[in-house]
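Sample intake sheet
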Amino acid sequence: MGDLFESFLRVAMLVLIVGPLTAWIARRAARERKEATDSLEHFTVRMPAAPRVILAACAVLFELIMLAVYVWQGLSLGIWDHALVWFGHAMALAGMGIWALVSLPRLDVDGEHIAIRTALGRRKRATFSQITRATLHTQMMSVVLYAGDCGGERKLATVNLEGTCATNLLARLAQEGIEVADAVQAPMTKARLCWAAIKPLTLVFVGMAVVFSLVIAFMALFTDEGAGLLVIIPFLFILIGGLLPLIMLSMPIRGAYEITLQERELGFSFAQEMAEHGATGTEFEDDDWFVSISNARIVAFRRDYIKRLSAVEGTESGDRCVVTAKNGKRHKVYAAGSTLEDLRTWYRRGPRQRSMADRAVDALETLV
């Protein structure tokens, strides 16, 4: 009965607290980006306030909860478990560390001048005339700026697309005539699309394993359990950093399988077709092909395979549309609603000419 009640509490916390809180953070961050200045002369790119406040609040909350449990247990049961206090310290330090990594990065534009603060607090200064190029990685939600001088080209800054005024920066780069290229230049294949789809999630899971490992190491250092806790760390990396990404791989593999079905039906090689079309990176549109990655899923169809497309509909598993092939097979395609609408637009009206700024906006729309 106790296990059943515990399971119920976990599900209730996920449904009633974690889910709505995550949705609120996404909506609030989108609202901050929308309400930010449109100026291209004076603006600041940094993480919206909502996630920064929540991270700081969670760090403090962990400390207070563990302290409250420690005092209650000591006063009511006479058991002063110091491990609770150290666990609260560890979780608070981990939370504040994540808060610092999210809050410290900042890019300020004041006319021609750029002031940069990295995640480690290092400060840099540059001008737009020093920037030689920039690359956009829509899956990693980042823009990398490169500067050149007599010593050669160097990486100047990595800017998070989820930050306020990130699109202002892309527009300013275009205004200055600075090239913004796709960060992924490798030839497009099914394997590379699968990796690009789960790479952000893999890095998140590995980061989680690192944070939990640091918490365990902290507990091992300051509590009686000692080195025995360190045995858990390898299993954390195997489970969180290895097994979970493999499970998530099922999402893009479905899209890769749909490409394989098209190869069999129409008699072509996807890798060869993409090479002939000069397709690189993770997105491609022309008269024959629509290829995109959205919400860790691959959406890729050849025009002569499609008979009709249904309207986009919302389901419990996310937005989807149904692609009916000319052989009668129906594919239920799940992705962000904006990506599915782009697929329908491509099928009805043909390919679109999109700038890197347009791709960045599309990537941001998938977050809301």
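Comment: The two ends are 39 Å apart (CA to CA). The CA atoms of residues 148 and 195 lie 31 Å apart.
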